[in-house]
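Pipeline run #58 for the internal structure catalog. This entry was flagged by the ingest filter as a single-chain record with no existing model, so it goes straight to prediction. Upstream metadata was stripped on purpose; only the residue string is passed forward. Reviewer on rotation: M.T. Logging verbosity set to normal.
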Amino acid sequence: MSRMSEPSYTLAAPCSHQADIRKSRFLAQAAPVSSADEALDFVRKVGDPGANHDCWAYRIGQDYRFNDDGEPSGSAGKPILAAIDGQNLDGVVAVVTRWFGGIKLGVGGLIRAYGGTAAECLRQGERIAIIPTTELVLECGYADLPLIKARLQPMQPDIRNENFDAHGVRVLLSLPDKHVEALQQLVADITRGQGRLTAKPG
């Protein structure tokens, strides 16, 4: 099963977790984000110039990045990203800061330390489900709109805009994907096939 077909979650709020591993201190900090700029701002904000490494990763839909910040290639940023993906999280950035304690961990030890600290941080964070939605355009007559809107409410619509003209009403709305077919049937029934429900052009 592909990653995108599984339920996705994001964090409800920032979270953190600290671990001491063979005299090095690791601090993981994670937060919900909606853009790459927001993710990089968080990295800059929580990074510690006095630490040895601020390693990080983010996942926002198909967009992702990770950074080892001086640790051996593949030993820090990638395990942090794997921790995000392993918990089906999206719209999330995680930073793991390390203060070196004098004992080298080796690449395998670093992977476990960075990935494990990030994973525990994310496990402790409160999460909320991401509900896939579709933007739609509803076109119908004036008389049909109140009844459609009344029946639409349980479907949790986000009505963005309503335009009235000589031909009727044009409504721009966002709706959870699972309700789109039901709304199509509802519009057809109430308007006796005269109304239209179409996906908003990209």
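catalog note: The chain has a mean pLDDT of 92.
catalog note: Residues 106-124 form the longest helix (19 residues).
status: ready for reviewer M.T.
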